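Quick one, T. Sequence first:
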Amino acid sequence: GYARRGDALIHNMKKIRILIADDHKLMRMGLVSLFNVQKDMTVVGEADDGMSAIRQAKALNPDIVIMDLMMPKTNGAEATAAILADNPDIGIVVLSSFSNSADMARAIANGARGAQAKEAPTEDLVAAIRTVADGETAIAPEIQQFIKDDPLPPPLTEKQLAILQSVTRGLTNPDIAKQF
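Structure tokens:
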């Protein structure tokens, strides 16, 4: 909103505080430039991996985290879950190429309220941030379609998980068969 003081219009709108989590410096620089020219946005921090994103979200308490999915240490879907477990009010907007729809679906299942393709027009991302900052969801239609066409695989059953753990411990098929 605007307040009138004398002849001057004074803008008293709170800026949307954004944390950018992406392991590519060039991508972060571009996003910082994009957001800082918006009158209603300000970048409060940058993270180059998932663990750093979790720490900074806790320390900075941003309104929005722009989350790349494919990052070292902790991926974007896991970082999304960890950040929201600590503070469910933070809006997470996942930004990714369609490299892995399962990761995108997982991030949304973990509570991300926005999802945009890195290839999308910048106006779409800016609009998505405003929508998520207002408490709504902003998942690009092509991402919704992509996830619908390629849903998450069902979680493993207890037995499947036990078999998988036996395989990773190096047990042979006959040894595993004896367990069940």
